[in-house]
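**User:** Everyone, produce a chain:

**Assistant:**
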Amino acid sequence: MPMPFELIMKIGDHPDVVICGEFADAEKMMLQQYLEQYDILTKSKLLREGFTCNISVKAAKGSDMEVKASLPDNDTLSILLHRLRPFILKGEPASFVKVCSVIGKRIDNPSLRQLFSEQRNLYNGHTSQRLMKVTLNDQVINSEKMLYDWLNSHEYHRDLDKQEVIDKLFGHTPSDLMRGILMSMLVDKFQAIQNIAAFVAVIFGKSKSLEFKIRDLDKDS
C-alpha cells in the first residue's frame, strides 16, 4: 500500500505550512533501505569514534608548495568508502541520487525543494566549488567527475584508462593535497547523506522533527 505522509514546515515567523503526499510501495522500500544503509554507516567504529581530516597549504613565489596534512590512513579510508558505496554508486537501489529523485517527485513545496537542492549541491561538489575551485591542467580537482574517476580507477573499480589519467594528473602535485581535497568531498557527501536520512526518518515517524541549516555563501564571499 502507498505510504501517506504529512509534514508541518516552520520557517521563521511565517505561518506553518502543511505538506501532504504519499510514496508508492517501491519508493517506500527504497527509503527504508536508505535508512538501513545509513544506520550501518553511522554504527561503524569509524563514524562512532570519528577521524581526523585536516590539511593546510602554504605557497610563496619562488619556493615549493608546503602541504601539511592529517588524513585517515588507507585502511580507514577503505572502511569509509565501503560504507558509503551504496549511497555513492548511482546504480545501487537506494543511492543518494535515486532517493533525492523520489523525494523531489513527491514534494512540490518550493521552500522544501530549495532545501533539497542545497543538499544536492553539497553532495555533488557545487557548494565546495562556489567557495573555492581547485584546478590543475585545466581540470577541476574538487569536482564530481574527478572524484568518480578516482573511485573507479583506484577504489571501487580498476579502470586502467582512468587510472593512467589520474596517476599522471595527481603526480604533478603533493599526494596529501589531492587526498585532502578528495576527503573533503567525501565529508561533504556524508553531510548531505545525513541530512536526507534525517528527513526520511521524519517521514517514517522515527524522528519528530529536523532542522536544515543552509550556509549563506554570499556572506562568505
Notes: Residues 215-221 have pLDDT under 50 and may be disordered. Residues 62 and 173 are 16 Å apart (CA to CA). Residues 3-220 form one domain. The two ends are 48 Å apart (CA to CA).
